[in-house]
Amino acid sequence: MNDDKSKIAEAEIPVSIYKQFGRSPKPISRPTGDTWQDKNISSWTVKGLRFALNLLYTERTKGALLVLGSAGIGKSQVVKQFARSCALHEAPRTFIEIEDIHEEEKVDEIMKDPSAYFVFLDLRASRLNPEQASGIPDIEQGKRKGYLQFMPPDWAHLICNPNFSGFVFLDELNRGQEAVVNSLFQFVLDRVVSAGRISDNVAIAAAANFGEGFTTSTPIDSALMSRFDCGVLIADPEEWANWARANGVSNYIIDYAVSVPNENFYGDGEDVKEGNIPLNPRQLEMASIRLQQVEKAYALACDPTNPQPLPEDYSGNIYDDIGAAIKTRLPNKWVNGFLQWLDTVHSFEWAEIVQKSKEGGYNVKGGSRSGDELTRSKQWALVRYVTNEVLRRFEIARKSNDEDTKKKLLNELYNDLYYILSGAGADPVAFMVKALVNSIKHNPPPETTPLQAAENWNTLMVPIMKKANADNPEFFKKVKALMDELGKIKK
Question: How far apart are CA 415 and CA 411, in angstroms?
Answer without folding.
Answer: 6
